[in-house]
Amino acid sequence: MPANLTPQYYDAEKKFRQATSPQDKLDALKLMLAEIPKHKGTEKLQGDIKRKIAKTKSELQKSSRHGPKTHSYYVKKEGAGQVVLVGPPNAGKSSLISVLTHAKPEIADYPFATRIPCPGMMNFENIQIQLVDLPPVSREYMEFWVPNLIRTADLVALIVDLAAKVPLEQVEATRELLSDKKMVMVRELPKEVDSISIAYKKSVLFGNKFDLDQNSEHFNMLKEMFSSEFDVYPLSVYQQQLVHHFKQILFFQLQIVRVYSKPPGKQVDYNEPFILQKGSTLFDLAGAVHREFAHKLRFARVWGEGKFDGQRMNRDDKLMDGDIVELHR
């Protein structure tokens, strides 16, 4: 018997896939159970959702026993995506934030100068990406709330110091410390996970202070050791080409597309694109415009690379970066 799942169910399922915390996953699972059609064809799926709800509740109860230790921090997401800068002391994260945004972090030549999160908005073409400078991730000391901010971010930019004698050890130490906090840095997010208590974080590795790395010796070692696990790039705030490349890499790694909604008979506004995850469909765009719009959508026309001007789209067709869409209901 077919399941005949509704658009509302698929919306809830999408929220579950994108959830970054156990509580968000639990909320999405409850919504999935509420929206799923109740008939024989969905009995197996209903049972699977109920088991996931029970497992998530159990894990939340275990973590709540420990309770918060002291004051924590939260950084509201803004812009097209939130990228946390993670790494050891004196890796140059604060200098990077200062150059790329209007934020004013404390910059010093001694370790642990950054003690609170410092967010700033980085311009990239016609959008902004939020960068968050975090206190160091170090075996010597790490603020207890830092892993929580990493867990909820859209992307991790791991910054290590090529001018240091041990950039390889910096990567290993950061990876081990986050692993102890049930986080795994990966090049690509896995489609299936064994435990929702483990947070897989899409990450990219930058060797900073490339201008001080004579003959690129440390960068080449970094790339040779970790290129099978991460995309690895050089970086220096003193080399404009590398700074521009850094912006492009973050945009690409966030896996987002910019889509422009064109009201029928009107001009396109290129200043305020809709930001969607790569692979999003026309139905997703309509829902971003207005929740009710998605269900009343009749058809749409699209202008973009590889398409005929005004080409008619189906609601399940995927959108590309730069597409212009005219919605009709």
Question: Which helices and strands appear, and what pairs or packs with what?
Answer:
Blueprint: H1 7-18, H2 22-35, H3 43-64, E1 82-86, H4 93-100, E2 118-124, E3 127-133, H5 146-152, E4 155-161, H6 167-180, E5 183-186, E6 199-208, H7 217-226, E7 232-234, H8 240-253, E8 256-261, E9 274-277, H9 282-289, H10 291-296, E10 299-303, E11 311-313, E12 324-328
Parallel strand pairs: 1-3, 1-4, 4-6, 5-6, 6-7, 8-12
Antiparallel strand pairs: 2-3, 8-9, 10-11, 10-12
- Number of helical elements: 10
Q: Structural class of the helices, strands and pairings?
A: alpha/beta
Order of helices and strands: HHHEHEEHEHEEHEHEEHHEEE
> What is the assigned CATH homologous superfamily of the largest domain?
P-loop containing nucleotide triphosphate hydrolases
**Number of domain units:** 3
DSSP strand tally: 12
Shape: globular
Q: Mean of residue pLDDT?
A: 86
Give the low-pLDDT segments: none
Residue share in helices?
Answer: 25-40%
Radius of gyration: 22 Å
Biggest beta-sheet profile: 7 strands, mixed
Strand content: 15-25%
CATH architecture label name of the largest domain: 3-Layer(aba) Sandwich
Structure explained in plain terms:
It is globular and about 60 Å long. β2 (118-124) and β3 (127-133) form a beta hairpin. By secondary structure, it is of the alpha/beta class. The protein has ten helices and twelve strands. It has three domains: 7-64, no CATH class; 82-253, P-loop containing nucleotide triphosphate hydrolases (Rossmann fold); 256-328, Beta-grasp domain (Ubiquitin-like (UB roll), Roll), CATH 3.10.20.30.
